[in-house]
């Protein structure tokens, strides 16, 4: 009788279907920072800016969550963001690389979330519609907000 063949041992990368890096969320606020795998955003979720005059300098915080599948951990992945007006004029941009490792003891196949907190300042040249476009590995999230003039106050009868 011929000896039994040992089954070939496959790595976890081979057993799991290939998945893509994706943007889990992108949130606009007044300030954002990430530390210790946690994201803190102050004044999150706004969609309207009111200013008495333009151009208007505006502090902002951008919170980003990027999901890295198990098969894509321990490798660098590019991300970027662009803030632009409705005409596509770029007001601010940034980006970089993220790399998620695997913590000891996590279940095989578990995706890892990388959180980013970006704080900065943009100048809004005029009232109008603005968009923040966040990209990573071909995935994209958009945050749209409006810059509006402060309505004039009427004093007394009218």
Sum this structure up briefly.
This protein is mostly beta strands and 158 residues long. The protein is 3% helix and 54% strand.
Structure description:
This protein has one helix at 12-15, and strands spanning 22-29, 31-35, 38-42, 48-51, 56-68, 77-85, 90-98, 112-124, 128-136, 139-149. By secondary structure, the chain is an all-beta fold. A 5-stranded mixed sheet has the order 4-10-9-6-7, with no helix packed on it. The protein has a 3-stranded antiparallel sheet with strand order 1-5-8, with no helix packed on it. Strands 2-3 form a two-stranded antiparallel sheet. A hairpin with a 2-residue loop joins β2 and β3. The chain is elongated, with a radius of gyration of 22 Å. Mean pLDDT is 89; it is low at 7-14.
Architecture blueprint of SSEs:
Blueprint (H helix, E strand, L loop, with lengths): L11 H4 L6 E8 L1 E5 L2 E5 L5 E4 L4 E13 L8 E9 L4 E9 L13 E13 L3 E9 L2 E11 L9
Parallel strand pairs: 4-10
Antiparallel strand pairs: 1-5, 2-3, 5-8, 6-7, 6-9, 9-10
